[in-house]
Each structure stands twice: as C-alpha cells, then as structure tokens.
Amino acid sequence: MWGGFKGLLSFDPELARWVLAAEDICFKNPVFSYIFRTGKCIPITRGGGIYQEHMSEALERLKDGSWLHTFPEGKVFQEDVPIRRLKWGTASLIARCPVTPIVLPIIHRGFDEMMPEKYFYGRRPPLPLCNKNLKVVVGEPIEFDLPMMVQTAVSASSDHVTEDTLQEAKWPVISSAGQKLDETAQRCLYTALSQKIQSSLESLRLLAKRL
Fold this sequence. Notes:
Layout: E1 18-22, H1 23-26, H2 30-38, E2 41-44, H3 53-63, E3 68-69, H4 89-96, E4 106-109, H5 111-114, E5 135-138, H6 146-158, H7 163-168, E6 174-176, E7 179-181, H8 183-210
Parallel strand pairs: 1-2, 1-3
Antiparallel strand pairs: 4-5, 6-7
C-alpha cells in the first residue's frame, strides 16, 4: 500500500494498485481510515454482500482500467490446506465490468510464520517476525470466455427458475456479456468464475510448497 502515498517520491502512486480491505481491521478509527484510504484501500464490510456500497467503487476503479487487488477467500486462512471455496465478490466484479479484466493469480507462503494469527494469547505479533522465509508465486493470467460462461449460466439457471425464486430474488438484474442476468443466473455464473480462480490458486499453492 505504501506505493500509494504521494509523499514517497521513489514510488509512482498512479502505478500502485487499489485493494479491497476489511473495514473492521483497516478502518476502525479515523487515523487508520486516513492511512489506508491514502494507500488506495477500499473498505469492504465482510459479510455485507456483493452489492454493498463500496463494491460499486471497486467496480468503478476497474472501469477506469486500474489495478485492483482482491482477496477472494474473504478472510485470513493460515492452515496448510487446499484453497477453500471462494466468496463471490471477485467473480461479481469480473462479470459486471464492461471489459473483462485480466486476472493475475498470486499466492504467498510464509506469512503464517512471519505474522502468525495465534502468536501470543491468540493474537498476532505487533510487528512481523524476523528471519522468516516468504515466497510469493505469480501465475499466468486467467482467461475467461465470459460470453460462453454467461450463456451456460443462463441455460443452467432456466432449469431452476420458479415463481417462488423470482419473488424471493433480492439482487438487482445485471448485464454481462450483452445479456441480462437475474439472481439465479448470477449465482450460476459467479460459481463458475470462482471455481476457475480457485483451481488456478490451488495449483499455485501446490507449486509454492515445492519451491
């Protein structure tokens, strides 16, 4: 995030990426809010849903052609286990952006030793621990045939649409790849997009273990 501070002349803030950051951690007081906002962080309420206010801001940044860093798992997992089912926030941004974004998967390994979640009485250390090995593995860009995925989602959702599901729908109808998607179709599409990202991240996780 420090590349976003205009006072650091060795960095270009225009090249720094935007990042979705947990509101309850990074924006819990005015000082933190100022620092993280200046560092190009967008506050996200965990559990607030994919159509919360600041997700629209994140979508605007993508429309502007900016880099946006997301954490698709939605929380910190330090266990050495397969990548869990992803939240749909990242998938919804991909689907709603007028131009399909380039998605670059990144895995890091070693933060569980550098900043363990349960270091002292179940809390993190105040500062990162020294002399720890940290690996960052960057994969190939993930390609999405969004028109095909949208068509598949629309076809799959038609088998599940009933009068009750239409009445219970709470999400707005969106446009993706030139088609209108109701809530049922969106759920099918977001599941497919998330599974593709999850598969790529899991491959990188296994690669990081071997490096």
